[in-house]
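target protein:
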Amino acid sequence: MGEVTVVIPSDLSRILRVDEKQLPKLVRIYLAVELYREGVVSLGKAAEIAGVTKAEMMEILASKGVPLNYTEEDLQEDIETLERLL
């Protein structure tokens, strides 16, 4: 996946009460949650964007009250993962 640089206002870490070093990951998580909530990306893609596992993404979504929409694409990704592991 390619990268895009985004400039984040320095006072955002103070507003969110997090260390500046945590901001990039936090922004990726917020972006992934919103894209998933809007149905733009699958669970697997949201996890990839956030830089977490699918299980972690499911926990993040649950903590934010976002219902899981297990799509055919999610199923196919899980099948491919299982086939690689077996």
Helices lie at 12-16, 23-37, 43-50, 54-63, 72-85. Residues 20-85 form one domain.
